[in-house]
C-alpha cells in the first residue's frame, strides 16, 4: 500500500496483476513438490489422529486444545523437509470450534472430551510445499444434531467443488 499511495492518483491503474496468474501455474517440479509435501503432511496428520483417538477413547488421556496442537506440530516436525507450521494451528473444541480463526490461549483452552466436536485447521511448511488442512473429529458418539450439521456442511462443500 505504501508504494501505491505515493503514485499520483491520475497514474494509478487498478486491475488484475499478471503476476498472480503466473504464480498460480505450477511447473512439473513445483507440482511434484506440492504432492510430496501433502503426502508427508498427511502421514503426520493421520499418525496424530490415530494417536489422539487412542489416547482419548482408549487410554482416557487428558488433552487440551493447546496440547493437541503441540502434539500435532511434533508429528509434523518428524517429517523430512519440514520447516514448521505454515500458520498457527486452529484447534477448537466444542463452541471454540465455531469461532472464526480461533487460536487457543490459556484462558480459553478447553479440555478435549468425548461429547463434542473438535475442529483442527492446521498446516505444515515444507521445503517443497505448503499445506493447509481442516478436519473435524469426535471422540465419542455424536448427537443426531451434530451429524446433521456436519452432513449439511459436507454437502455444501461438495456442491461448491462441483461449481464450474
Q: How large is the share of residues in beta strands?
A: 15-25%
Termini Cα gap: 33 Å
Q: What's the alpha carbon Rg, rounded to whole Å?
A: 20 Å
Per DSSP, the total helix count is 5
What structural class should be given to the helix and strand makeup? Answer: alpha+beta
Low-confidence parts: none
User: What order do the helices and strands follow?
Assistant: HHHEHEEEEEEEH
* Secondary structure tally: strands: 8
Major sheet size, sense and barrel closure: 3 strands, antiparallel
Share of helix, binned = 40-55%
Query: What is the approximate shape?
Result: globular
In round numbers, the mean pLDDT is 95
Q: How are strands sequenced across the largest beta sheet?
A: 2-6-7
Short description:
It contains 5 helices and 8 strands; from the N terminus they run H-H-H-E-H-E-E-E-E-E-E-E-H.
What does this structure look like?
By secondary structure, this protein is of the alpha+beta class. The protein is built from 5 helices and 8 strands; from the N terminus they run αααβαβββββββα. The protein has a 3-stranded antiparallel β-sheet with strand order 2-6-7. Helix 3 (28-58) crosses helix 4 (65-77). The longest helix has 31 residues, at 28-58. The relative contact order is 0.14.
Layout of helices and strands, plus pairs?
Elements: H1 2-6, H2 18-23, H3 28-58, E1 63-64, H4 65-77, E2 82-85, E3 90-93, E4 111-112, E5 117-122, E6 124-126, E7 129-130, E8 133-138, H5 144-162
Antiparallel strand pairs: 1-4, 2-6, 3-5, 5-8, 6-7
Amino acid at each position: 500500500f505504501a508504494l501505491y499511495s505515493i503514485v499520483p492518483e491520475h497514474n494509478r491503474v487498478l486491475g488484475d496483476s499478471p503476476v498472480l496468474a503466473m504464480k498460480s501455474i505450477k511447473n512439473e517440479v513445483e507440482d511434484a513438490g506440492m504432492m510430496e509435501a501433502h503426502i508427508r503432511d498427511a502421514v503426520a496428520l493421520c499418525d496424530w489422529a490415530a494417536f489422539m483417538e487412542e489416547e482419548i477413547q482408549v487410554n482416557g488421556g487428558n488433552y487440551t486444545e493447546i496440547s493437541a496442537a503441540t502434539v500435532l506440530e511434533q508429528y509434523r516436525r518428524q517429517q523430512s523437509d519440514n520447516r514448521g507450521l505454515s500458520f498457527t494451528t486452529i484447534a477448537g473444541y466444542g463452541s471454540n470450534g465455531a469461532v472464526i480463526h480461533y487460536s487457543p490461549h490459556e484462558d480459553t483452552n478447553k479440555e478435549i472430551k468425548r461429547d463434542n466436536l473438535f475442529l483442527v485447521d492446521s498446516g505444515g511448511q515444507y521445503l517443497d510445499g505448503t499445506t493447509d488442512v481442516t478436519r473435524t473429529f469426535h471422540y465419542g458418539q455424536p448427537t443426531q444434531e451434530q451429524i446433521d450439521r456436519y452432513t449439511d456442511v459436507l454437502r455444501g462443500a461438495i456442491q461448491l467443488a462441483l461449481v464450474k
